[in-house]
Amino acid sequence: MKVLVTVKRVPDPETTIRVKSDGSGIETDNIKYVINPFDEIALEEALRIKEKLGSGEVVLVSIGDSVVTEQLRTGLAMGADRAILVGCDQDLDSLAVARVLAKIVEEESPQLVLMGKQAIDDDASQAGQMLAALLGWPQATFASEVVLSDDQQAVKVTREVDGGLETIGFALPGLITSDLRLNEPRYASLPGIMKARKKEIKQIAAADLGVDMRPRLTINSLEPPTQKEAGKKVETVAELIGLLHDEAKVI
Amino acid sequence: MENILVFAETQKGSVPKSSLIAIQAGQDAASKLGGDVLVAVLGSDTAAAAQEAAGYGAAKVLAVNDAALENYLADAYAATLEQLVQANDVTLVVATATAVGKDLLPRVAARLGVGMASDVVSFHDDGTLQRPMYAGNTLATVTLADAVKVVSVRSTAFDAAQPGEQSAVEQVRVSLDADATKMQFVEFHETKSDRPNLTEASIVVSGGRGLKSGENFTAYLEPLVNELNAAMGASRAAVDAGFVPNDLQVGQTGKVVAPELYIAVGISGAIQHLAGMKDSKVIVALNKDPDAPIFNVADYGLVADLFKVVPELTEAVKKAKE
User: What is the Cα–Cα distance from B135 to B253, expressed in whole angstroms?
Assistant: First the structure.
């Protein structure tokens, strides 16, 4: 089974994000970049599917300029077979990303596309659902368990929804986005890192795909959120209860 | 005339509070941008829910009944909404960013070939929207370029709609082909709880890695939660450590809450957690580390060993109630 996994380069979640003083973007100096954590979970799931079946191919795809190669190499070191880098200098919104990915899916014809449920930079949580819609494919977002049928033609996915867990099923091809509890991604091993150096990263120019990438969502400006004033430190539970009762009036 | 289409969910035949928030957000947008609010209710038997949705002053409720809509499924629901948008001169589609809203709206937007803004916290008169990015570390002002705009709204940023004039309920038929019905519903396991819903509770008590184990959630946190008639939440660190299930997670990648009172127990206050609770009205932090970032957003902070003070607090709440 061929599984396509998307990878986005994002600031490390532990990084403190600061808005530039002119509001045009975020300060990028000294930011460490990583694979979007949910994409790592998606990749881990793809690798487990391949390992369980004993055959198949895991293909990574990312969009961006050449620095994204770094994240693709990391994914290859984790165990993906090969990677595609869609070269693009401009920032794409979710619809443009989905349109570019739809082209790659048409060329690669994977049975399954695995993506992260959201990227932790723009926090949109749109690209997966949009890609599924453009392809006319079924989708299972926020997956916590993926069970492939014995004949590999269908899948049952348990999803983390409000108030519980929902299971849905569909025939492949289909698209799944990963939630936190789906699995715990592996670290790249040293042999994995060595092997990754020889794996293929195919370069394609986004402009050559003939896709409408004009932004539909434009970010005009960014501002830091309003800062809350520092609160009071209390010494005892009695003091706390007193304040919650008399001052905050919430108990 | 331009219309605003609000998607209302149904839960056991009734309209959840999260969807009343969507109706309010739609009315908010209408007051700033013009247009009438239409509320879409989808299902296999929507009579009761449509009637309920009609009690909030919308111009019209569009009720769509179809066997394929019995359970929420992204493909059939998205195809239905697309048809409603096209048949009703809709220029703005609104739903709350619940699990359903997040799953559904991007699919609707892509079917329409238009862009979407997620987790919007305010509509402006000039047509721009505000939404958080980077785990709430920035607030972005954005513009959607298309004639039809698709927007999910953050539930904590809008109030629930208040009962208003009765709206007419119009029965609408849609045609759902095989392409729109590829997904099948299998089952739903509801998390059984006698406690209030995490996103709707007026008090939330959350535990973090400081609790050290799932057993301690039961032994220390639960009595306090019960005494306050609160909902229980958790930090991602506690979920990652396997102490509690992920549906309790409060944060950027979990639930966003804004209760009257939020009590953070043994939570350091990672950026990603703060993104999910910092709009709470009153925040209390209990942590033994005086430098924990949670104290920067807390109204009241108590630096102490939680295993000592949580039982004390539970006892004090019990006394205060008597």
Answer: 8
